[in-house]
Amino acid sequence: MFHLDELLTLCSLFFVSDVEASEGKQVIHKRVGDSVELLSNLPAEGVTSVEWRYKNTRVAIKGSGVIRNNPFKDRAKFNNITFSLTIRDLTLQDSGEFNLITEVKDHPGSVFITLQVHEPISTNPNVFSNITQPGPNGFCTVFLECKANPHSNVTYIWTVRNQSSNGPRLQYNITPQDGDTTFTCNASNVVSEKLASETLRCSNTTGPTASNEGMFRKERFEDNKNKSVYFVNLLDV
C-alpha cells in the first residue's frame, strides 16, 4: 500500500558515518574508487608481532611489509610504524572481512573489521508517473514510481507538501483546487543520494494521451486499505 499515512524521518538520517559498530565488530563503508585506512590502534611500544589478513589470506606482516601475492596486488600499503593497512582504488569485490592478529607484551589479540564497498548512485533517479482524470469524488489519483541506478540497496522517500512516504512507489490523491503539486523522490544508499521531482496538476485533461501510449508500461499497485488492486500504465518522464 502506498499511502502517506505516516510522517517519516528526513532522508538525511539514512546516511551513516564511514565507520560503525556492529555487535562488537567494526564496519567501514566506502565508495567504489575510494581508499580505506584500517587502523591498528596499537601502542607505540611493546608490539611483538602484527599480521593483517583478508578472508584468512595474509596481506601484511610487521617487519616484512606487504605480502607479494596479496589479494590487492599493488593497491595495498602497510605502515610499519603505526601498523595501519591502506587499500586504494576500492572495488565492489574488495568487500569482506579483515583480521588484525597481534601480540603486545606477550598478550595475543585479534580484531575483525568488515569493509563494505558500495556503488554510488550515479545519476538522478528516473520518475515514472500516471494521473487519472477527476472522478465522481472530485479528485485525481496519481501513481508514481522512482528508480535509481544502481537498483540494489537503495532507500526511497517520496515527499509532497509536508508529508513523506518511504518506498519506490507512491499513490496519492490531488484535486483541481490543489493546483500544481510537486512530488520529489529521494533515492539514497549508504554513500550517496540523488533527487528527482515531478509536478502534476489535476484537471479534466489529465491522463495518458494517444500520442504517448506506446511509452507506458503496466505496473501493479495494491491498496490494502480499500482492498483493491490497480494495474496502472506508468509513463517514463
UniProtKB/TrEMBL annotation:
The compartments listed are: Membrane
- One cellular component term from this protein's GO annotations in UniProt: membrane
Q: Which UniProt keywords apply?
A: Glycoprotein, Membrane, Signal
The UniProt record lists the Ig-like domain at 125-201
Q: Where is the signal peptide?
A: 1-21
Q: Does the keyword Membrane apply?
A: yes
Establish whether keyword Plastid is in the entry: no
PANTHER family xrefs: IMMUNOGLOBULIN SUBTYPE DOMAIN-CONTAINING PROTEIN (PTHR12080:SF48), SIGNALING LYMPHOCYTIC ACTIVATION MOLECULE (PTHR12080)
Question: Which protein is depicted?
Answer: Ig-like domain-containing protein
Q: What is the lineage of its organism?
A: Eukaryota, Metazoa, Chordata, Craniata, Vertebrata
